[in-house]
Specification:
About 30% of the residues lie in helices and about 25% in strands. By secondary structure, it is α/β, with parallel strands linked by helices. The two termini are about 15 Å apart. The chain binds NADP nicotinamide-adenine-dinucleotide phosphate.
Length: about 325
């Protein structure tokens, strides 16, 4: 099989297509033939060791052998079931996440059947299915910490990205009043996802906004936390998805002194979450936002595109024809 590997941190050119043995599923594992994965912010952050903290998890000087194939999301077909597997059969269409174990930039992967992988749906393509879990699980993880109620005012900063476009849709589903911060070119996109108001960051400064919000979801990391605090109602929720170490460290102290709730950390995903995602896709309550599909041989260009920080939703990476 073909896989995309990197053996040193650096620019997108460190990604190389290599030939590897097709893995064999251990007892309790399924082998998935991957049709599509996606290029997410998590991938270029690990590839470039940005932030430095990445090295503590994935290898100090070089990526560890177990971390050399990036990719945390997939859509594909079960190709072989290990001994004792009960929930999946060969031929099942599936989508989901390998999460921090990564390994989805490959044509085959073996995962425990308990992994956050669920049966897929025919109503979206493999490319769309692979583009959903990263942003949606992140937005879902953090919004679960917030008791969203109908009519609440929610501000989503970075509303056109993978996480932001998911957050806008989840807040819309909860019947909140959503204000989306994005560039002018993406105003129509975020409105189509359910934003009630759009703030164009190219022409309007958040520091001059007079509104107060119940919830702020920050996914860009360019607005000072002290500015965000002034936009929040007392006791409101400040969700810092792209927080650096300092803001993570200070979250508890600031929450207490500022009388608000600051949420940071790393998003986790479960099998139940993935079941819920399939349900809202099938019911039409969630739409994938897929800007472009790249072929495996274009992975360098896909990483260059993602790393600019201006993608519209998601970028799929096709690993093989369905
Ligand atoms: N904590 C966690 O567990 C976790 C999980 C996933 C992601 N993250 C982090 O969350 C961040 C967002 O991830 P993502 O995958 O959604 O990124 P993404 O898909 O690359 O989206 C970034 C978005 O930010 C917008 N943007 C850029 N500059 C902006 C500005 N000044 N004001 C408002 N919007 C701006 C861009 O829209 P325009 O083109 O309109 O500028 C783009 O759509 C990343 O830093 C990532 O590392 C954290």
């Amino acid at each position: 099989m073909k896989a995309i590997e990197f053996d040193r941190y650096g620019s997108p050119e460190v990604l190389q297509i290599v030939e590897r043995e097709i893995p064999e599923p251990a007892p309790g594992e399924i082998r998935i033939r991957i049709h599509a994965t996606a290029v997410n912010s998590g991938d270029w952050r690990v590839r470039g060791a940005s932030p430095f903290l990445v090295r503590l998890f994935f290898g100090l000087f070089r990526p560890k052998k177990s971390a050399r194939v990036l990719g945390s999301v997939l859509s594909g077909t079960v190709d072989k079931a290990g001994e004792g597997v009960q929930g999946f059969s060969v031929g099942d269409r599936v989508f989901g996440m390998s999460d921090l174990a990564m390994g989805c930039y490959a044509q085959y992967i073996c995962l425990p059947e308990s992994a956050p992988i669920v049966k897929g749906t025919e109503i979206i393509s493999h490319e769309e299915a692979a583009s959903i879990p990263f942003g949606l699980h992140t937005a879902h993880h953090f919004l679960k910490k917030v008791d969203l109620q109908p009519g609440m005012k929610v501000l989503v900063i970075g509303a056109s990205g993978a996480v932001g476009s998911a957050a806008v849709q989840l807040a819309r589903n909860a019947k909140c009043h959503v204000t989306a911060v994005t560039s002018g070119k993406n105003a129509d996109l975020v409105k189509s996802l359910g934003a009630n108001e759009v703030l164009n960051y190219e022409t309007e400064s958040l520091a001059e906004v007079l509104q107060k919000y119940d919830v702020i979801l920050e996914t860009v990391g360019r607005t000072d936390v002290k500015t965000l605090r002034t936009l929040l109602k007392q006791g409101g929720d400040l969700v810092l998805i792209s927080a650096g170490m300092k803001d993570m460290f200070l979250a508890g102290i600031r929450s207490a002194f500022w009388k608000l709730k600051i949420h940071t950390g790393v998003a986790a995903v479960s099998r139940q979450d993935m079941e819920y995602f399939r349900k809202i896709i099938e019911s039409g309550d969630y739409s994938p936002v897929l800007e472009k599909t790249y072929n495996m041989g274009e992975v360098v260009q896909a990483h260059e595109h993602a790393e600019k920080g201006h993608k519209r939703g998601n970028l799929a990476l096709r690993m093989m024809e369905a």
